[in-house]
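agent> fetching stored inputs for the zinc ion docking request
agent> found them:
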Amino acid sequence: MDKCSRCGQERSGEERFCTNCGADVSVGKTGIAGRWLAGGGCLFALAPLGIALLTTPIGGNMFSTGGDGGGAALYFMILTLPLGTLISVIGLILWLSKRKK
Ligand SMILES: [Zn+2]
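agent> prediction call returned; pasting tokens
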């Protein structure tokens, strides 16, 4: 027997919203974690792009690895892109497998 994560009301597991407090119970704790993983993985994968943008001075070339650009940060994407994508995919699978209908 599942319980509502907000008010603790017992539920059959069929309904999408809690019959007591109306909370969305269609996605369980694992599903919520999956959703966070999916979003976090995406952010993680693209983080070096943001760092490169932020560390590049105006007028500089963000793809340059010289002194005038933040291009060095882009090298981290070799690591973060596959890792972030992997985290994202795991999160999505968790999320979708826990989502009902
Ligand atoms: Zn409830």
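agent> quick read of the result: The chain has one domain: 27-100.
agent> awaiting further instructions
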